[in-house]
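Lab manual, section 2.4: Encoding a predicted structure.

Procedure: take the sequence of the chain (408 residues), apply the prediction step described in section 2.3, and record the output as structure tokens. A sample record is shown.
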Amino acid sequence: MAVGTEAPRAGHALSRSWLGVLGILVVAGAAAWVYQLAHGLSATGMRDVVSWGMYIFTFAFLVGLSAGGLIMASAAEVFGVEALKPLRRLGVLTAAACVTAAAVIILPDLGRPDRAFNLFIHPNWRSPLIWDLLIISVYFAFAVVDLWVMTHRTTEPARRARALKALAFIGLPTAVLLHSITAWIFGLQIARTWWNTALLAPIFIASAIVSGTAFITLIALVLRRYERIALPEATWRWLTGLLAAGIAVDLFFVACDYITIIWGNVPRQRAALDVILPGGSWQWLFWVEWVLGGIVPFVLLVTPSLRRRFGAIGTAGVLVMVGVFAYRIELVGAGLVRPLIQLPPGTSIGTQAAGGPAFQFEGLYHPTWVEYTITVGILALLALLVTLGYRWLRVMRSEEVTARVGAD
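Recorded output:
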């Protein structure tokens, strides 16, 4: 009897500690944002040359997590993949939480968030930024409705099944459109040759599926460990298979982009790529994306003796997310560090230090403690939303899984 009562108590204590830590991080992020509002964007590492930084990396990453979760949840209904249906609610929950966090992290990047209302009052419909604002709003509303239908108990089962089927056929293209429009914010900028490629939207969608699947896989592993929820073996096979196939497709698209630029060998087009290729100043991104976040997890997921081990699956999931985030840094950072016009005396860096230059030929970017704190606070907000959503909405019901186990 004592053993049976101590385990739940330990679990509740761990849950309270987890929520407490997340709450502290969220408050710290809010405090750092207040500091930034008081001192302006000069409190960040962003300047005239590199005008987008950690907030935009993370925004693109969170949008990918969100789209990936809903794509997997909708695909379970659209294509009738029974093995993925136990994860539908979890996928929609992560979609809603991630797109909320993505919308929030844009506010610190604006510097003057009070002027965000101008986007609604005076929209420029030729700008992909307005398209993105619209699709994010629609996507969030859709995810909330979808989650409500999934968790609403009073709805007749047959009627709810029909509604979920219809919503899935809407959700799948909506999720694809969300990440496509985010990619077009970069890809339709003709003057930025590193971004201006038709492959950018497919790359974003592939990486969204990979990162979103990895995120849900990691949450499922946490639930297995701390909530004793056992998913069917077929579900794990689908998750690992999607991850492995997604990694291969994602790296293939990126490689096609690299090869096209290298083969053409146009100096202005190679300028950004040279920054991240081996020998460049940002080459660590190449090794993180391709080796640590690509080849290593792919090997873990396709090796028969490893892909059945939950430790290997979890390691692969973490590495995949690290690799996708590295690509986001690579895309934004490398696209900005080489100014478009490199003529003497260079491009103004926006500040002048005693004894230091006010102009430079290549951009420099180092996030400050403000950016790190705000970003960590928003990631903590994401974790808080997922945790509370799981508790309140009971997204993993017993009828959706094969068993609940008492011990591993």
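Check your result against the sample. The first helix runs from residue 2 to 39.
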